[in-house]
Design goal:
Elements (H helix, E strand, L loop, with lengths): L17 H13 L44 E2 H16 L7 H14 L9 E2 L13 H13 L5 H21 L4 E2 L6 E4 H15 L11 H13 L10 E2 L14 H7 L8 H15 L8 H8 L28 H21 L9 H6 L8 H22 L8 E2 L6 E2 L5 H17 L1
Antiparallel strand pairs: 1-2, 3-4, 4-5, 6-7
Helix pairs in contact: 1-14, 2-3, 2-4, 2-14, 3-5, 4-5, 4-6, 6-7, 6-8, 8-11, 11-13, 11-14, 13-14
């Protein structure tokens, strides 16, 4: 029996223009956004239909034919906020012909917020009612950032609703930012680096806002507290994702890719040497053939000038197809987020005309062929090339540009749920950062 083969033409990743690819990715993502005219049935909960503004995490649900038993036909507050940021960019760039998707997002967010139950519920049915799920403190912060980003693109009634949502989010976060929460991966409970970074960025944006959001008197103290709290996650080698450090079957939980995501979606600085040290360790654990967590597909891709593809954390056991502990595969969104880190660091090098020279940053730079003596222009070019190789790997392993949640660590074929909204949003965000870094 022959090996697996692709059933459709594969893109010539090395020749593909990433900005052109992103234009297709936008509309693939947009298919998951409900409207008055595009209505979804909940395949698991009869009678539940989508309301306008709902963002499906993925249209995939349990299907014995494809061996996928995971149901993602829900609206996650965090994922939807990440998508909403791309919708706002899409409208400002003229890709979206009108602002109705933004208005729908605001109104659906209001429906969720007013639906009762725990304020920080992370996941909702597609009609806006709470789903039995975990509570996560990053959601209200990221939703606030999305609302601030789109505010001037909204009509007056929706602007009024957005201000109400932001005020309610701030009122909740005032009592939550010092506490524990369920983490980004919805697996561990504790003090989350990602949640703290998202909350810090939210508070910074509110403090600087010019749209009329009242800056609470408690905010300056919260800013200082979160900056100090984030520093407490440094263990001398990497930033730790969750404190106390998990000691269950998922250990070791670090280095965890959500540290890099805290720089993409949160306030963590992309030139923080401790962040870059963590990023270097993350790449090495999946790209170094001597690592016990090495993904074989990265070896094949490296020979073609692609990759690497990255996962979530060492020894991950979630394979995305089932709830069995069959784990560890690379993800499209985490790879795109890491590529965006390269682009953002390149932009900093360009704007400062300086290459970081500290020992903590050196391993990260070396992985892109950069040293402290590399000319800034050459360093920025090498960093952009490193990001391009990762995005091109995503394109190469896509199913005709459609992106699932994960790629098989051995074959590179897509696996887990199909058409993950966050996969597209992460790719789009990375390409925008790439343009800024050029």
């Amino acid at each position: 029996m022959g090996g697996l083969t692709y059933g459709t033409v594969r893109p010539a990743a090395a020749q593909a223009d990433l900005a052109t690819v992103a234009r297709y990715m936008f509309w693939l993502m947009y298919r998951n956004v409900a409207s008055d005219g595009l209505v979804f049935d909940d395949p698991v909960n009869p009678g539940v239909v989508s309301a306008p503004g709902c963002v499906l995490a993925s249209p995939s649900w349990e299907n014995s034919v494809t061996k996928v038993t995971q149901d993602y036909v829900y609206h996650w507050t965090r994922d939807a906020a990440v998508v909403a940021l791309e919708l706002a960019w899409g409208y400002s760039s003229g890709t979206l012909p009108d602002n109705q998707p933004l208005i729908d997002y605001v109104r659906f967010s209001q429906a969720c917020q007013q639906s009762g139950g725990d304020f920080d519920r992370a996941c909702y049915y597609i009609n806006g009612t709470p789903r039995p799920w975990t509570n996560q403190g990053d959601g209200p912060a990221l939703q606030t950032l999305a609302l601030l980003a789109m505010y001037r693109q909204l009509d007056p009634p929706s602007q009024a609703i957005a201000l109400q949502l932001i005020d309610a989010n701030l009122d909740f976060l005032r009592g939550a930012y010092q506490g524990q929460t369920c983490n980004l991966w919805e697996e561990e409970h504790g003090y989350s680096f990602f949640a703290r970074s998202a909350q810090l960025r939210c508070f910074q944006a509110v403090a600087a806002n010019t749209i009329g959001v009242t800056v609470p008197g408690w905010l300056p103290d919260a800013l200082s507290w979160l900056i100090s709290a984030l520093e407490s996650h440094w263990n001398g080698t990497v930033y730790q994702s969750v404190l106390p450090v998990p000691a269950d079957y998922r250990a070791p939980y670090d280095p965890n890719i959500d540290i890099v995501q805290a720089a993409i979606y949160g306030a963590e600085s992309v030139t923080d040497p401790q962040l870059l040290a963590t990023a270097a360790a993350l790449r090495a654990q999946w790209a170094d053939p001597d690592s016990k967590y090495f993904y074989p597909i990265n070896g094949a891709d490296a020979a073609a000038g692609l990759g690497p593809l990255l996962g979530r954390y060492p020894g991950d056991v979630y394979d995305g197809d089932t709830s069995d502990q069959a784990g560890d595969h690379p993800w499209a969104l985490t790879t795109a987020n890491f590529a965006e880190l390269y682009y953002r660091v390149a932009a900093k090098v360009t704007s400062s005309a300086a290459v970081p020279a500290d020992p903590l940053s050196a391993p990260f730079l070396a992985q892109a062929g950069v040293t402290a003596t590399t000319a800034p222009r050459d360093a920025a070019s090498a960093l952009r090339a490193a990001g391009d190789a990762m995005l091109r790997a995503i394109v190469y392993h896509s199913d005709h540009l459609e992106l699932s949640e994960q790629f098989d660590a051995v074959t590179g074929f897509e696996k887990s749920v199909a058409n993950l909204s966050w996969s597209y949003a992460a790719f789009l965000s990375a390409v925008r950062a790439r343009t800024s870094a050029s």
